[in-house]
Amino acid sequence: MASYLITGASRGFGLALARQLASLPASDVSKVFATARGDTPALEELAKKSPGRVVVVKLDVTNEASIKQAAAEVETNLEGKGLDVLINNAGVCQYASDGVKSMDNLAESFTINVLGVHWVIRTFLPLLQKGTQKKVANISTTLGSITLSRSAHYLPAPAYKISKAAMNSLTVQYGIDCEKESFTFMALCPGWMKTDLGGGEMADLTAEEGAKASLDMIFKPGQELNGQFPKILVQGWEKAEGNNQYDGSNSAW
């Protein structure tokens, strides 16, 4: 039985992750801590359908006091047990219509996509150290790949790309620091999904498809993915035309 915590679980991909986990047997998933900044009817409804297993927790990744308060609530709920898996999903994608020179949102993007991830990890690390699986999945994107930056230039979101590249580096640093404690830190790419942050109906995958494939990667045993930048595996998308192939391989940094 494993316990999970998901940030940014109020809608889209994060909500799909919470629903997928809640649908699994209690023998596999004991608790799902689904966090959000404010009230969220969809999460509350899920919690009602899964009493005791899905716990809604208020958490703002830009506020360290909020993160500490959430960690205390989770610790109490775990009743002496550790947290097994942390999924850092909360993020923001901001645009600059005239390219990088017009970018005025880098500080906010860094606060949410990098500092927020760091603050959540270090606050929950003592609980993760008590857990049995010791896994942290930081939700990333191939748009944060420096190697692939020219092919991704069509999307005018430089702050998103830059901050995700920094988050990827943060992931590697945590992976190296904690590997002797049997941790796995991955920068996981869940694909281009039909969400508000993603591409709407133009995107490749539904949030449910992305969530299932992402959990398949997170469920992998061992530390093979520690410090890695894996893409999800979706049948039929391994050799798709265009920029997006979901073949389970590591993306280029």
Automatic annotation (TrEMBL):
Organism: Lepraria finkii
InterPro entries xref list: NAD(P)-bd_dom_sf, SDR_enzymes, SDR_fam
CDD domains given in the database record: carb_red_sniffer_like_SDR_c
Transmembrane segments: none
Protein known as: Uncharacterized protein
Family: Belongs to the short-chain dehydrogenases/reductases (SDR) family.
